Amino acid sequence: MSKIKIVCTSTGCLDYAPKRYDDIKKDIDIIRIHMFFQGKEYLEGIGFDPEDFYLIMEKVSDIKGNLPHTAMPTHDEVAAVFDKAIAEGYDKILVVCLSSYLGGTWNFVRIVAEEYRGKAEIVVVDAKITCFQEGLLAIFAQELANQGKDLPEIVQELEWRKAHQEFLGCSMRLDYMILNGRLKGGKAFFGKALNVCPVVHFNHAGELTSLSSAIGLNNSLKKAAMQLAEWIGDRKKEDYLVFPTYTGRSLIARQKAIETSFGIETNHEPVVMSCVTGIHVGPWIVGYAYCPIRREDEPLPEVPDYYYEQTGKTR
Q1: Do 99 and 238 share a domain, yes or no?
Q2: Count of CB atoms situated within 10 Å of the CB of 65
Q3: CB-based burial of residue 309 (10 Å sphere; 0-12 exposed, 13-18 middle, 19+ buried)?
Q4: Three-class SS of residue 297?
Q5: CATH code of 270's domain
Q6: CA 174, CA 156: separation in Å to the nearest integer?
Q7: Which end of the chain is more exposed for a tag (fewer CB within 10 A), N or C?
Q8: pLDDT at 194 exceeding the cut of 70
Q9: 110 or 279: which leads in pLDDT
Q10: Kind of pairing, strands 240-246 and 285-292?
């Protein structure tokens, strides 16, 4: 019987996952992104608490002069994860990787995986999102692997979830978005001058876009709550997960006060955002992760083309 190793990039926040996932996440290996801040290099998830990291970011007075940045894992770091899995007897590996729109990591991991043709069957999945929603895809894949599902079936289930997942984030300050190039020119100038707080959203292609904007954080949160309520619709609570996700924990209280008036009830613990994400969008974000769970009456998509391209198999 085939053994499937599940792997996730560190942006999936498995290091910070709620305790309910302790038993399942221990079997998932992690490819770590590099972070550079205040003259030091870190591997995401090792050696620091993300909430402490964001508090430090909040207190930086010269943001432009202390702008953190990130870098992809090295070839040897990715290869070491694959070599370890093979040495442990795994002949199939599924990697859940942060959205390909957020840098070159997905493509780089896929290129390294090509070197293992004939040694293991490796599929690298573009999560089309990041932070704990990425991690939840890996957790779900591990659950399916534990049930004896094979790679094609697991990939089908992940594709259904990817097609239905949603993320909304509201930013109280735009400094890091402007300096990292997420907002440019007139948008940046007027956004900062007028206290515009954008509602950002991952579209289903995996691109972080501005869904709408409002003057002030409370108005931005109201727009986010309205959109979330529309997405949930009449779906039953057992058929989705919805939870706060943040870089600024202090903003959750404001979020909670507003969501109640829209009849929204979260059913999962808040989860801090990936520090790699926070480096690019700043420490003043709060939002929602919405993750529908497939019902029996909701059909799966076909096995995607990338599965066959990456494994060399035919339909």
Answers
A1: no
A2: 7
A3: exposed
A4: coil
A5: 3.30.1180.10
A6: 37
A7: N
A8: no
A9: 110
A10: antiparallel
When pLDDT is averaged across residues 253-263 and rounded to a whole number, the result is: 92
Any idea which residue has 């043709």 for tokens? Answer: 117
Dist. CA 158–CA 13, nearest whole Å: 18
What gap in Å lies between CA 131 and CA 269, rounded to an integer?
14
Length of the chain measured in residues: 315
Residues 6+ apart with CB under 8 A from 266: 242, 243, 244, 259, 288
Q: Please count the structural domains in the chain.
A: 2
Q: How confident is the model at residue 182 (pLDDT cuts 50, 70, 90)?
A: low
pLDDT (average), residues 35-64: 90
**Residue 298 is assigned to a structural domain of this protein:** no
Does residue 190 share a domain with residue 50? no
Report the 10 Å Cβ neighbour count for 9.
29
Q: Give 48's pLDDT tier (boundaries 50, 70, 90).
A: confident
Residues in Cβ contact with 276 at an 8 Å cutoff, skipping those fewer than 6 apart: 10, 11, 33, 35, 44, 70, 98, 130
Q: Angle of helix 252-260 relative to helix 217-232, nearest 10 degrees?
A: 50
